[in-house]
Task: structure prediction
Amino acid sequence: MRLDKMISSTGIASRSQISSAVRAGRVLVDGAVVKKADMQVDPDKVSVIYCGTPVCYRKYTYIMLNKPEGYVSATEDGKLPTVIELLPAELQKIGLFPCGRLDKNTLGLMLLSNDGDTSHRLLAPKSHVAKAYAFRLKFPLSDADIAQLESGVDIGGYVTAPCCVERTDEREGRITLTEGKYHQIKLMMEAVHNQVTYLERVTFGPLVLDTALKRGEWRYLSDDEIALLLKK
Result:
């Protein structure tokens, strides 16, 4: 891989900035000053320092974000702030996108990545990836309501797949789905004559929301989390 491509893929600098830094003698490979920005390197084996900063190369980047209210699950939007804008500038340059969507007012776990194949697999209906949400409702949820939700309800011409509902209080609980239709949980609750007042995604496949992350905060996935995510 070309050195300038390796460095630019991390979002730390553009290729023109990298070329300027190389000419100024501010890029080191394995401790030696680099003379050509297009030199070939093995990104998994070399140590690269760009303007005093170590370069950490990743073929793909995986980030866990605790989504706050008011942000849309998109890479850009003409009116509202996006979840990508919660990341530092260098990470906004490397093609990250939200894996799946959460409504503007839904909180919690989001996976951001630039790994299109894995994202497609996780979101494909045939994969049946489980997603759990903590909810709060306007009215009490009865046993009959839960039975109806778990067996499937009509949300406008579509009958939802079986799910699991755990009630922790008369108006609160957790619902686990293996599908993700638009506004699905809100529509499901409306189908049993109720209304969602709070919704937070707490799991996505093997990932569990890190409770140390405050709203709007993020972190890289651990190696173990990535391994679980990539496991087929």
Observations:
- Residues 15-23 form the longest helix (9 residues).
- The radius of gyration is 22 Å.
